[in-house]
Amino acid sequence: MNHIRRFARGRKPPAHGQLNQTEQAYQAHLAALKLTGQIKDYGVHRFTLKLGADCRYTPDFDVLELDDTISLHEVKGAKQMRAKDGSTYVVPFAMDDSKAKIRMAATAFPWLRFCIAYRHKGPWIVDEVGI
Predict the structure, then answer these.
(1) Which is the most buried residue in 9, 12, 86, 98, by most CB within 10 A?
(2) What is the C-alpha separation between 119 and 73, in angstroms, rounded?
(3) Among residues 45, 23, 49, 44, which one has the least CA distance to residue 104?
């Protein structure tokens, strides 16, 4: 009996310059913040930071705050976790390499503010990445 070996097909990443659905939702959120005057401006994939030899980091969004500071936002999906006491909380879903790159960038560029934006069936949560 011939067995045909089939492999699972992974999802294709979005084409260069295109946003996934989570990033599109965050872009709409930033547009609303700009319209209401809570931020001055934002951009998509405009900066690439060199962290080392053959190591680069391109944040999803750069945001010009009202006080003229720039914060770089990385958009991640989220998952709901359950604590031992039965309560639930939401954490961003990020792979270890992306967490490491964001921390490396925050260490290498301390004058910039690095943030992770995520949500799970609710409002956007924006956490600043500490060094």
Answers:
(1) 98
(2) 13
(3) 49
- Convert the pLDDT of each residue in 75-97 to its tens digit: 998 888 888 898 888 888 877 77
DSSP 12: P
Phi-psi domain of 64 (left: phi exceeds 0; alpha: psi -120 through 50; beta: other): beta
pLDDT tens readout for residues 1-36: 566 666 556 666 666 678 889 999 999 999 999 999
> How many whole angstroms separate alpha carbon 107 and alpha carbon 21?
29
- The pTM of this model reads 0.81
C-alpha angle with apex 93: 89 to 38, nearest 5 degrees?
75
Torsion of CA 91, 97, 102, 105, to 10 degrees: 170
